[in-house]
Please model this.
Amino acid sequence: MTCKELTERVMAYRDRELPLHVRLSLQFHAAICSCCRNLLSTYDETVAIGADLANEEVPEEVAQLFDDMLARAMVDPEKPED
Amino acid sequence: MSANPLLDRLRARDRSAFTELCVAQRDRLYGIAWSVTRDRQDALDVLQDTLTSAWRSLSTLRDDTALHAWMGQIALNHARMRLRTRRRKPVEPMDDLDALFEADGHRRDDISAWPERPDDALDRARLARRLARLADRLPDDHRELWALADTQHLSMEEIAELTGLQVANVKTRLHRARLQLREWLALELGARP
Ligand SMILES: [Zn+2]
Model:
């Protein structure tokens, strides 16, 4: 396996979607290529940093405003409430 | 009558059925809206527009409509429209992946390891915001897939359902987006790319 082939397969490797022989061949390449080892670790980091963006909770105001939003949505065009 | 009593009630414009559906979907819809717009007010507006559009389109529901996918698609469309009306940073061309490699498939430049990710929550949040800013440079379709997958943890199948793409295409573009973000982030972090 080359660096390019490994790069193309990082996601499938992480998701355990590669056939065993391809997986082993990728691991063998990574064992001898520091560049690709670092690619694997920094790809994981990139995904992990993205996951930190999910930590923003659904804001309290969504729950507070939701009943009003629903009421505003459920207006039939033929029979406006105003 | 369909096999799904909720569908029948929705088509009859039953307010409590609609409320039930929307309450169950609330956080997911907000998550889609927020991940795509990355702006709290925009996400709230998208949520309102989604509810309004859904209520108006109840008559289009078919017996085989998957309700969560249907509402998610409405939210995604509104989020895309909202994003288009707001000026984002100019999109940068993505790297030509082939150019990163020699003809024999070996990487041209070196790739360094990154410093340990900070333990401190504030530092981590700062790093995450840097990544979000870099993601703004991605083409819209790649940015959207990245946002839904990596910040909202939607499955590839869910994203395919929302976007109408094949699962294989979702994976290919998500991988491409991650690789590009990794390259940009490496430059930002001062490590060699
Ligand atoms: Zn390599």
